[in-house]
Amino acid sequence: MSTYLPTIKQLQYLVALHESGHFGRAAEASFVSQSTLSAGIRELETLLGVTLVERSRRVVRFTPLGEQVVAKAHRLLREAEELSELVQASGKPLSGELRMSVIPTIAPFLLPKMLPRLRKERPSLKLFLREETSADAMESLQHGRADCVLLALPFPTGEIEFEHIADDRLFVAFPKDEPRDPPESIPASMIDEGHLLLLEDGHCLKEHALAACNRADLNASATMIGTSLHTLVQMVDNGLGMTMLPQMAIDAGILKGTEVIARPLKEKNASREIVLVWRKNSPRSEEFRLLAEELKAG
């Protein structure tokens, strides 16, 4: 075995540079000066005897070998974090630092109810939250930037463990002056494909809504325009179309102050499953299951 091995700090600098593509931003994310980060990466290259990063005034480009080293560095850093988590998990549950990513169609509706109670009942827990789309959140989980993720299924997650939180029914929301007399629930056949407003690409709720409707014409004609559910509600309230909302958002009062009407979508599988997910075989699995129970209680 070589006496000279890369340090955790050097690998952290390398990963930060790869993620940001810029020495200044990588240094800021690592809470060090740019010269310190640059020197750390050069020391790593000298140690390994290879060039990992091609430097120019405008571009930071990783060599093919550099890309392979970054992939391995991600795994090593994740293992190092899990070593620390193993020790932490042996102490008091739900204490210390915990990083959780939450998707935007859950965060503003579940967290305001959950966080005050969690702070009161778990005062030793330092919960760091990051709002991300499902794809970005799962990438954060796999790369060790997040310890767990609160998201909605179905969504491709890879090798994970999860705990069910709730089933969240989908509703059709439309203007009050919609000419048709709305029934107690809305079949997908009543949705006007030319007036359906959905979230932009990257939000899994769009895919859940289209899959529940099971209409190819909606997939082709739906207007993917909204950046948030609140934006979509305001567009519907101004007569620009109709949209799909989860019950979680309606229960949280997203329609308050508007004249928007919402009715359940009358279709098979017209719901999404809210889950808490974490890396498979994580030493903190039991702690995450306990957190899931706290979320259910909220």
From TrEMBL:
Transmembrane segments: none annotated. This is LysR family transcriptional regulator. The keyword Transcription regulation applies. Signal peptide: none annotated. SUPFAM superfamilies: Periplasmic binding protein-like II, Winged helix' DNA-binding domain. Keywords: DNA-binding, Transcription, Transcription regulation. InterPro entries: LysR_HTH_N (IPR000847), LysR_subst-bd (IPR005119), WH-like_DNA-bd_sf (IPR036388), WH_DNA-bd_sf (IPR036390).
